[in-house]
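Course assignment 3, question 2. Fill in each field.
Student: A.L.
Task: Predict the tertiary structure for the chain below.
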Amino acid sequence: MDMNETPVISFITVNYNGLDDTCELIESIHKVVHSVTYEIIVVDNASRQDEAAVIKARYPMVTALRSPENLGFAGGNNLGIKIARGKYMFFINNDTYLETDGMQALIDRLESDPDVAGVSPKIRFAFPPQNIQYAGYTELTKITIRNRSIGMGCPDDGSFDTPHTTPYLHGAAMLIKRKVIDSLGGMPDFYFLYYEELAWSYQMTIECYTLWYEPACTVFHKESQSTGQESPLRTFYLTRNRLLFAWRTRENWRFLSALYQIAVAAPKSSLVYLLKGRTDLAGAVWKGVYAFIMLPEKRR
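Answer field:
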């Protein structure tokens, strides 16, 4: 692509000690996306080595920048937003890849109505049997802050091929109109890791925008390659940020929801981890609770 040409899509991905995965994503985009012009922006979130420099050397057409500190998922993406030139911004996890070009279908969905702010594709697990991970979300409950990823674990047999609105986009892959980001601002970086895309989706919907699931595009996801499926880091931020999300979005329900998380959900989770011999994860649950309690400013 001519570097002076304004791209239709800016692919933005955050890299943290994930060079091989990031390179696989870049190569998959280059291989299959031909329907639109695009740019790829990689934000290296203070990896142990300067992986941005490696990416620049391997892929001269990719814009790779290195943050001197780990800004978290939202902060890293917000760095990418600052330099993105596309009409649409595709936030995509570095541990994903594409096998087909479904970009035009996502754009068509975005442009189907002025009130559509963002769209997520069908997301399937990368590893066999490559079942569905995401075909839209159900609403989060008011008190327990739980919901369901539609199609989770189901085979991709056509049962989830109908587009529909969804209350939340999936942080692993979401295409959003630039003008919406210009209006509302970037991802809420107070969360650092996990729940930021839910908070961003919530912000869009309370501003009367709609969000969609579009199955005509599929992204394959390796799932939690940076943090690990069951890691203290992941457990800490999921616990803290579930409480934080409830406190910031549940209005009249926030005290009841926080009480439930602290008095019921946290003890149950920590007990389950202890029974599995994972004292590190049990400790991470209570560290997350404590971190939430000690946050000096929990409200917006």
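Instructor remarks: The beta strands are 9-15, 38-45, 63-67, 88-92, 96-97, 116-125, 132-134, 164-165, 173-177, 210-221. Residues 232-294 form one domain.
Grade: pending
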